[in-house]
Structures are given as structure tokens and as C-alpha cells.
Amino acid sequence: RGGCASPESCPLVGAFCCRAMPAAMRRSRTGPLYVVEHMEEGLGEWCRLEYIHMCEIVPPERLLFLRWPAGVEPAGLSMAAGSSGPPLVTPQGLQELRAMLPGEPDYEAAASSATPPPRALPSWDRICLLDMDAEDALEPHDVTKFDALVFGGILGNVHELGEGKYGSDDRTAELRDLNFVHRRHLGPMQMTTDTAVLVCHMVLEEARCLAEIPFLDSPEIGENVAGESAARDQGSQEEAQGGETAEVCMEGFRYVARRSAGEGDWEPALPKGMRELLIRDLDNDILGQL
């Protein structure tokens, strides 16, 4: 486990409202713009479920997907999430949108020739890249410093380095090369993009320090023969109950922990349908394909 020493000892568990998440979240209309650079071909089921989860966390007018694949209707995300409208999308990438910012070297040419995005980016010095290699962690007071947060919409390969440490193939480097003024990390372990959005929302918009958020590291996610969901921390000594289970271990990944609706066990906060997708593709080694 990371973050707090254990979910049970977290001082904010009572206020966390894990059983009601994400319905209990404050979906404020004011706050930072969440910018996701889509970095996959098309829109696979994994990405679709993650993006729907983001629509449940962030109001659609504050969620912008870049390099959006042609022919994919964004309204489907918001309809599945029960959101008030579709998120913002554009086929342009971050590098193209940066060129359209006043003060950039190619501003005049870019602004006159390119199609304006559905929402303009703030100035470059008010944008923060979420980057595992950043020196500083995201903190609640950063809410006054940043008007936009940038996430790479990818799930990179994770490599075990030994001694409980992990590395990745660092596809965030594609964005890091844009020379951000500000970068922040969310801890030493990789997160899925929707988890990163959720954690940023909790830190900046609910004023929760990273150390106060309950996490599960490398959880085993599965379903038993009766169809009852099961998830537990890899480091836990508890045995699964209720018969055999089909499980996949999310090795090297960190998730926000929440209480399950049944017995109140801690489980990772997953997008709706993600558990079923993992189990369905268990024989296809879905993590190895990423």
C-alpha cells in the first residue's frame, strides 16, 4: 500500500465516502481544465471505460481530449457516465494547440490557419504536466498555480526493478519534450489515466494531500465462480473466500482504495465494466499488449 500507512488508518476515510464514489464528489463548474492527450490508435475498450470514468469525475466543460480519433462520437462517453453533456474533443495535439497561444513563436501562422479548439488553453506557465519523473508532488495549494493539468492518455508497460520498485517505458516523454514550466508527480507508482485524474481532483478540488488518500498497490482483481467480485492488495495475507477465482494482478499500478458495497473490504476504484474486461481478456494477457 502507498499513500497512508493503511486505508484503515487514513484520517479522512470517514469523509472519503468511498461507498458513494463518484456520486459524492463535488463536480464543481469552476476549477482546472483536465487535458488528456490521447496516445493510442482508435479508441479501444480499455480507453473507453477509463474515459467514461473521467466523465463521472470531471464536468464535461472541464475535460478536453486531444488527438481525438476520427469517427468516434464523444457523446457516447457522457451518456454512459450520466453526464450533462459530452466532453470537449479536438483532433489536434498539444503541440499544435501550444503554437496557437499568444506569445508563441508560430502564433500568428498557427492562429490564422488552424481550427480553434473547443476551449482555448491557458497560458503555458499556467499548465502542469503530470509526470512520474517530476521532482515535486502535487499538493492542494497548487490549485492556485495551475489552470490546466495535462495527462498522457496511455497505459505504458511496467517493469519490476526489484526491492518493491517499478519503472515504465515512459511514454510521457512524448509530452515532456514540450518543455513544460511546471510538472508534478502523484507518487512513485504508475496510475491508469482515470486514476490520475481522480487523484488530482481529490488533491486540488477536495484539498486532500496524497498521504491522506487511501491507495491499493498492485491489487489482484478477479471474480469468483459465483460471480462475486474480489479484489485485494497483493501484500495482504487474507485469502479469498467463496471458491476459486479468476484473477489478474495489476502489477506495478496504484489505485485509489474504496470500500466495497458488500462486506466493506477495500477494493480499487475501477471504471464500471473494467473488472469484467480484465477477466474476459485474462487469457489474452491484456497488460502485456499495452
Describe this structure as you would to a colleague.
The protein is 21% helix and 21% strand. Strands 3-2-1-5-4-8 form a 6-stranded parallel sheet, with helices on one face. The protein has a 3-stranded antiparallel sheet with strand order 9-13-14, covered by helices on one side. It is globular and about 60 Å long. The chain has 290 residues and is an alpha/beta fold. It starts with 12 loop residues before the first helix and ends in a 10-residue tail after the last helix.
How many H/I helices? 8
How many angstroms does the end-to-end distance come to? 24 Å
Main β-sheet description? 6 strands, parallel
Instruction: Specify Rg, calculated over alpha carbons.
Output: 19 Å
H/E series: HEHEHEHHEEEEHEHEEEEEEH
The stretches of 5 or more residues where confidence is low (pLDDT under 50) are 1-27, 224-230, 232-242
Q: How many E-type strands?
A: 14
Mean pLDDT: 79
Proportion in β-strands = 15-25%
Q: What shape does the CA trace take?
A: globular
Structural class given helices, strands, pairing?
Answer: alpha/beta
Helix content: 10-25%
Strand order of the largest sheet: 3-2-1-5-4-8
